[in-house]
Amino acid sequence: MNSRHGPLGPLRHRMTTSLLLVLTLLAAPLFLLAPAEAVTSTGLGTGHLWRGDNASWLGTYRLEDGRQAFCLEAGKSSPVGNHYDTETGSEVVGVSTADHARLAYIARTWGDTGDADTAAAGQLAVWTITGLNGHTQRYYAGRANERWPIVLERANQMLAEATAAASTSVTGSVSVDLQPDGTGSIRADLVVDRVGGGPEELGPAHVGTATLTGAVFADGSTQALLHNGNALPFTATGDRAQMTVTGEARFDDLPYGRVMTVGTSPAGSQRILFTGGVSVAASDVASVESLSPLPFRPTVSTATSDVVAEPGTVVTDQLTLDVLPGEGLLSEWGRYEADGTWSLVPVTVRSRLLGPFRTPVEPRDEWPADAPVVCDVAVEVLDGPGTYATPGCELPSGGWYTWVETIDPADTPAEAGRDRVQGWRSAFGTAFETTFVPWAPRIETAVVGDREVLPGSCVSDALDVLDGNPAAPEVRVDTLLVGPFTEAPAPGTDLGPVAEIDESLLAGRAETTIGADGRYEAPCIVATEPGHYVFLFTSDGSGSVDDAPPVVPAFADTTVHESESFSVVRPPAPSTPPAAPPAPAESAPAALAFTGGPDGLRIVSTAVGIVLAGLALVAAASTGHVLRRRRRESTGPAESAATSAGA
């Protein structure tokens, strides 16, 4: 983008340009009169003395400080021996702006000459502009004696040249071009406002000084010489997301403009125009802005929501995003252009909760390749540095868990500044990332032996330890025998807490030490009373060391399980042979066997009577049916029909 032409480039670069004219053709003296100082004319300078009176002079006058001067007012007394107060400016002589410029040009160009003809011609040209006091050029040219034709011709040549070349002002401008890749160039131009032709851009005729802020030239410096009209390349520096390059160019001692110095004497002698003119400076400053091409490396500081938790806890990870500085990297969050504005580059932080681990995690740079994974979550960061929270992950069981994070440039759209993002990956097992869930082992129990035993039997309970923690210390488990119950407690009944169980039901207690996975058989407990019993267990865990949470927390199981239940039963009474039944009477039918008292006898007798009555009814019906059939067979069909009709 170039600061010279209209808007300073597309919005994508948002070049903010301040083309400030620090000094133009006029430095401060162009607009303000310089402080007056006194100087004395000491005698004649360079020129011709008229031999006609050996007094009339055409040329410059010498001043005590070594400078020379032309007279401005023809006809007034000589300045020799008089003191002069000086003033410098662009309007110190009562002539037009163009004539002021021509006088300044003559003083700059020919005032310090050592040639008598040139000095005399210069004086004649000055009087021609300020006034000849009623005389002609030829009149004053005659003071050059026989050289007058040369002086007269030379004076008019000076006037013609001054009219064409004199300038009312000179201005400088600076343009700074900055590309998206951070390269650019600075150029300075000078424009002179000619009396005879108007504004004119000068070719590379002058050497100035260029100074950069936010960039360096090819040799690594921030300052270099440059010709007007020529561009010098540079490279932007800095580690900010927004590059700002400021370029300044200054040209000193420029022979342009209408500034000059004149002197006025209190003695009333004619005013004088100091030769050499007044050099002027032109400078300008321009600034340009663009997005830096440097990448940035995001970094994440994290802290888990829970350092110690229990199974089922939903934990999150707090993410604090910042930028990791480094060589060739931005010191702040990168930006990209979107809809005419510069927006923060979006990134995605992917978090993974690893675990559970059976042993405490040790910090290291690389993640274990075979680490178990609880969940994967992601946070899209649109607002750059700040604090964010991940979605939650539920802890399934005891052990150690740790968060790890990554930022992958592939998650950032190409049009949103992907090429400005560098990847990031967290270390493994940092303290702030780790959550510990105390590890209660899973224990299944079962009565050893029969489910029905005799009073006085010694019954033991087997503890099957599953999902134990090999890194945990051994812990003590108290097995409690609860009973006897008249009715067997239903499976699933909670008898706890242990401290609230009726002391009369605590039939015994045994102690077992458990460690790694496996079966542990508790010492047996004697069950003396008949009834129903159930085994329970409780443990204080591994205890706390230095106020740290215990690796194995207190645990207990006071629920009735069928596998933990048994009964104590009395032994069966001795068996006796049954009594022989009495012999049946010969005249009576055999009686049905029964047990019981008189009520039972009556019930059985009634049942037998009912059965006998039924049998009699069936026999009578059968006999009547046979008799009727025989009667029909002995009579004829007619008799049978009559009988039927009579019926």
Describe the structure.
The chain contains seven helices and 38 strands. It is rod-shaped. The relative contact order is 0.09. The chain has three domains: 1-293, no CATH class; 298-437, Immunoglobulin-like; 442-568, Immunoglobulin-like (Sandwich). It has a six-stranded antiparallel β-barrel. It is an alpha+beta fold and 647 residues long. Strand 3 and strand 4 (68-71) form a beta hairpin. The model is unreliable at 1-36 and 585-647 (pLDDT under 50).
Quick overview of this protein structure:
By secondary structure, this protein is α+β, with helices and mostly antiparallel strands.
Q: Could you say how many structural domains there are in total? A: 3
Structural class by secondary-structure content: alpha+beta
Helix % is 10-25%
- Could you tell me how far the N terminus lies from the C terminus, measured between alpha carbons in angstroms? 139 Å
What ranges have pLDDT less than 50 throughout 5 or more consecutive residues? Answer: 1-36, 585-647
Strand order of the largest sheet: 2-3-4-15-14-5
By DSSP, the count of extended strands is 38
**What is the number of helices?**
7
Q: Give the biggest sheet.
A: 6 strands, antiparallel, barrel
Radius of gyration: 62 Å
Strand content: 35-45%
Taking all residues together, what is the mean pLDDT?
83
- Overall geometry comes to rod-shaped
